[in-house]
Design a protein that fits this description.
Helix content: 10-25%
Shape: elongated
Strand content: 15-25%
Number of domains: 3
Radius of gyration: 28 Å
Number of helices: 4
Distance between the termini: 93 Å
Structural class: alpha+beta
Length: about 160
């Protein structure tokens, strides 16, 4: 019995950082930080850093930002001052230096939703929802280039030259 009492004396009395109650850790290595699993979960939700990028099944990417007016909290236990916005909108806001309006849409020129390079994004200002996918003119340009045509786009106009052989 004296040996067990010695082991229990090694355990130092600690105070739970969540509920401020005193407790003796169950293991002798002092790994237990909280008094219970419930307090440990609460501490984990308070202190853990959220993921910077979360891919969606539809191809878009959520980007974590602090103190953004359009940020969405993806779950109820998330930090109240942070949230997620779509990454292509965040990148366009960084380019323009302002927050996007509700009637402004960010369009991917090549139609790939997770390709958020600044040269692939363009801003559309429309009062209704834009059609999904690529613009018809972008599809035509890609098709002509795949067929071997040389296509130039000066000022939004298309000039097709002779086919290269």
């Amino acid at each position: 019995m004296g040996e067990k009492e010695y082991k229990y004396e090694k355990r130092k009395h600690q105070i739970c950082p969540v509920c401020d109650q005193g407790f003796n850790p169950k293991c002798g290595k002092q790994r237990q930080i909280c008094c219970s699993k419930t307090c440990a979960r609460i501490l984990n939700w308070r202190t853990r850093k959220p993921k910077e990028r979360i891919p969606q099944s539809n191809g878009y990417i959520w980007h974590y930002v602090e103190n953004h007016p359009h940020a969405v909290r993806l779950h109820k236990k998330m930090r109240p001052h942070g949230g997620y916005i779509l990454e292509h909108r965040f990148i366009m806001e960084q380019i323009l230096g302002r927050i996007l309006e509700s009637d402004e849409r960010v369009h991917h020129k090549n139609g790939i939703r997770n390709d958020n390079r600044p040269e692939n994004l363009e801003l559309w200002s429309i009062s209704r929802k834009d059609p999904p996918g690529k613009r018809t003119i972008d599809w035509v340009i890609d098709y002509l280039r795949k067929q071997g045509w040389e296509v130039k786009e000066p000022d939004g106009l298309i000039n097709c030259k002779t086919r290269r052989c």
